[in-house]
């Protein structure tokens, strides 16, 4: 930096800025290399129905696995990828792999629900978004029925009218839409009603807050809003058995969280699906025993 350095605090500030800029640049370069070398993998976290104990769907979550720096968390690289625009290419890798994996689970008779894929604001506002998605679905021979896209309030509140048009074109294809991290952004109820959504995902912060009565009332209110708008509700970041009990009382049936499972690699998730299948067909197994 060519600015004159006056005093220690100014120097320190400049140093921090420099270190951050260097770190950013390092990650940007790692991502460019990682895109070439296929270092982005997709993990899957189950969404479970707490009444039946059955799998209802899963969320695809990107994992950046570098040979030299190990696993870099999405919390670190996604914001940088958003800024540099690399999120568009990363997002396509994730969507492509998620469609490929779900197609295989479908063909193997292991799963016939939807996979939820996170869509960044940059991807959402691509003028050819729907074409790009169509191409990926076609390439993987996956009907759009099996896809759900998760978007955040920030993504759609930038230009709500434009967002409604984009959401409608996705929805018209049979793609489901979920509002992710609901309650942490600044979307208004007036818009919530107009967005062609299928699902509200209640942010983990609200689930953590269920320790207090006020917190439980908040989740109760969100679930009620969702029900009045005919939306499915998913509780995010559920870790404890007592949270499951509370959510049952609040009529929130679908949960995602470490309580059931962390995000799993493709192979781990395949094993999870097989285990689910053997659980849900006990009569078949016991019938076979008598043969
Ligand atoms: P998100 O979409 O809200 O995903 C849920 C995050 O919560 C995931 O973190 C998941 O691992 C974590 N989580 C789930 N259950 C629990 C729990 O019980 N306890 C705790 N402590 N955490 C739990 P992850 O995978 O680190 O992803 C963080 C965020 O990065 C995501 O939040 C999403 O905003 C973004 N992200 C992840 N994958 C993608 C992607 O493929 N594309 C885009 N655009 N963003 C992504
Ligand atoms: Mg998500
Ligand atoms: Mg979320
Ligand atoms: Mg989140």
TrEMBL record:
Give yes or no: UniProt keyword Cell inner membrane: no
The molecule here is called GGDEF domain-containing protein
Segments forming domain EAL: 24-277
- Answer whether the UniProt record assigns the keyword Signal to this protein: yes
* Taxonomic source organism: Pseudoalteromonas espejiana
Supply the alphabetized keyword list: Membrane, Signal, Transmembrane, Transmembrane helix
Q: Which domain of life is it from?
A: Bacteria
